[in-house]
Automatic annotation (TrEMBL):
This is Branched-chain-amino-acid aminotransferase. It comes from Afifella marina DSM 2698. The gene is ilvE. NCBIfam families: ilvE_I, PRK06606.1, PRK07544.1. Pathway: Amino-acid biosynthesis; L-leucine biosynthesis; L-leucine from 3-methyl-2-oxobutanoate: step 4/4; Amino-acid biosynthesis; L-valine biosynthesis; L-valine from pyruvate: step 4/4; Amino-acid biosynthesis; L-isoleucine biosynthesis; L-isoleucine from 2-oxobutanoate: step 4/4. SUPFAM superfamilies: D-aminoacid aminotransferase-like PLP-dependent enzymes. It catalyses: L-isoleucine + 2-oxoglutarate = (S)-3-methyl-2-oxopentanoate + L-glutamate; L-leucine + 2-oxoglutarate = 4-methyl-2-oxopentanoate + L-glutamate; L-valine + 2-oxoglutarate = 3-methyl-2-oxobutanoate + L-glutamate. Belongs to the class-IV pyridoxal-phosphate-dependent aminotransferase family. Acts on leucine, isoleucine and valine. One of its GO terms (molecular function) is L-valine-2-oxoglutarate transaminase activity. Its EC number is 2.6.1.42. Its cofactor is pyridoxal 5'-phosphate. It comes from the Bacteria. Keywords: Amino-acid biosynthesis, Aminotransferase, Branched-chain amino acid biosynthesis, Pyridoxal phosphate, Transferase. The keyword Transmembrane does not apply.
Length: 296
């Protein structure tokens, strides 16, 4: 990443990738006062761009700061980042943090900084490969009680337990970890939401202590449009035995089938495949195939 080229938008200006630096005494680094987004552009169009920018604002407000750029300004900055870097299929990382003016828990007057980075990340949708499914461990950390942390914000600090959990899972050979919540219910993965299938019905946990992902919301809409019933409810880990399929959803993960969660096994099947295909169709801009056709 250090050697990457291109431009990063930093507080309203474009800077070279290597020059996008912050001071070591940044409040966001010491006290976790940082919020971020993860977005994907397909064929030059950011999927659910506005909703991501609105979520960035909402996350900042939850952490008691206000972004110095409006939703419209961030929307046009994101488009500029793609244009300046000449990206069409890319991952975007807008983020905002308290600066380095004052050190201490209280930092009311510290500057709120905003940056937007992007890097090329085409979505390789080889259905065969995806349908093998990934293996998940069960994390020992739990998603916290909403009284313990601002669980609905996409706040950097909440990812501390995600990184620890993902590293622990990876060291045991798993791709990721599924986290339970503080009540012992199934919650989500370290960067994605989770769905299960039983008798043709989708089951997914109520997002009452974790991010209600935009991909999750899209998949629910797509399932309902196909007449697939979606049951949003409390799911206990003991129930995993009774599900036939499982998949995770997120901007980065898109729709990724799961083959194993600890001792439980699933067979990625028709519903996972359908949701995966419908999601790819939903994120693909209508103009994309025409552009290819025109170029060809
Ligand atoms: N949960 C967590 C912890 C995440 O980091 C993400 C990715 N942003 C999600 C769920 C899925 O959110 P989205 O579908 O909006 O990317």
């Amino acid at each position: 990443f250090d050697q990457m080229q291109g431009k990063i938008w930093l507080n309203g200006e474009f800077v070279d990738w290597a020059d996008a630096k912050i001071h070591v005494l940044t409040h966001g680094l010491h006290y976790g006062s940082c919020v971020f987004e993860g977005e994907r552009a397909y064929g030059g169009v950011v999927f659910k761009s506005l909703q991501h920018t609105q979520r960035l604002h909402a996350s900042a407000n939850t952490l008691d700061f206000k972004l110095p750029y409006s939703v419209e300004e961030i929307e046009s900055a994101k488009a500029e980042v793609l244009r300046v870097n000449n990206f069409t299929d890319a991952y975007l990382r807008p983020f905002a943090w308290r600066g380095s003016e004052m050190m201490g828990v209280s930092a009311q007057k510290n500057r709120i900084n905003v940056a937007i980075a992007a890097w090329q990340w085409p979505s390789y949708f080889d259905p065969e490969e995806r349908l093998k499914g990934i293996r998940l461990d069960i994390a020992s950390y739990c998603r916290p009680d909403p009284r313990t942390a601002p669980v609905h914000a996409k706040a950097a600090g909440l990812y501390m337990i995600c990184t620890i959990s993902k590293h622990a899972a990876e060291s045991k050979g798993y791709a990721d970890a599924m986290m339970l919540d503080w009540r012992g219910r199934v919650a989500e993965c370290t960067g994605a939401n989770i769905f299960f299938v039983k008798d043709g019905v989708l089951h997914t946990p109520e997002p009452d202590c974790f991010l209600n992902g935009l991909t999750r919301q899209t998949v629910i809409e797509l399932a309902e449009a196909r007449g697939i019933e979606v049951n949003v409810r409390a799911i206990m880990p003991e129930e995993l035995d009774g599900f036939s399929e499982c998949f995770i959803t997120g901007t980065a993960a898109e729709v990724t089938p799961v083959a194993e969660i600890g001792p439980y096994h699933f067979t990625p099947g028709e519903i996972s495949k359908t949701m995966f295909e419908d999601y790819i169709a939903a994120v693909t801009p209508v103009s994309a195939p025409q552009k290819v056709a025109a170029a060809g």
